[in-house]
Amino acid sequence: MTAAALATEAEAVVSAPHGRRASPIAYLVAAVCIAVIAIMGAPMALSFLTSIKTPADASAAPPRYLPQALRFGNYDKVIHYEAGLATYLANSAFVAFLTIAACIVLAAPAGYGLARFAIRGKEIAFLVLLAPIMIPYQAILTPLYLDFAKVGLVNSQVGLAIVHTILQLPFSIYLMRNSFEAIPREIEEAAMIDGCSAWRRLLHVFLPLAVPAIVTVALFAFINSWNEFLAALIFMSREASFTVPILLVSVRIGRHGAVDWGALQASVIISIIPCLAVYLALQRYYISGLISGAVK
Q: 171: Cβ–Cβ under 8 A, 6 or more apart, which residues?
């Protein structure tokens, strides 16, 4: 049963008229949906409960799922840790913004050219562009670091954004190409008859019609850049340049080298909030953009 069918059955349970019993399948679908929501939401709920525990409660064995006493000092520790939470959030937001801008600026023309122009060897070029997805990105971090060190991009938010763009660009091009291919040829032909050049067709015809795909590219770029840890750890060595994922690793160190689980989970909850807010704000574009070009 597809996700669309599950959603339809769930809506049938909610909208069934009073006095009319819904089908057993509808009840089963509703139960499955509730179970999935509970399974997906349980880790977040446990993280929040741990974030308001005392250190003794958070590290108790066997674990205590409910806090014995409320303690919001974990959030205070995260907010005032080292350079301050605001610095880390600003660094992550700036790097993510640069990554989003670079992915859209590069992926839109590339996807447009691959979708709409008869270029010899186009499919081979497309496969070459997608090939980096099959390479573990950890393998390219060392040569990138050596190259960036020569041009002064180490400890630079611009340099980190370039790394994140390199990691995200193949998927962005794939998504934009599928979206542009789904746009009817008749619209492009009408623009050509009106005298639009290739760039004007891209800017004034294709991009407005591909807004869901652009939003999806931006959303994926934001989430991947916001959560990326290894490249940020390698390329950033100054405290004031650290991003949120590095904060998560640093703030977990408690007294005598023990793991401060309360502070760690508090930082996890704080780091989730921007991603959740962006996703909820853009989810209607995300769904349509992700499946654009899937059905022709």
A: 133, 220
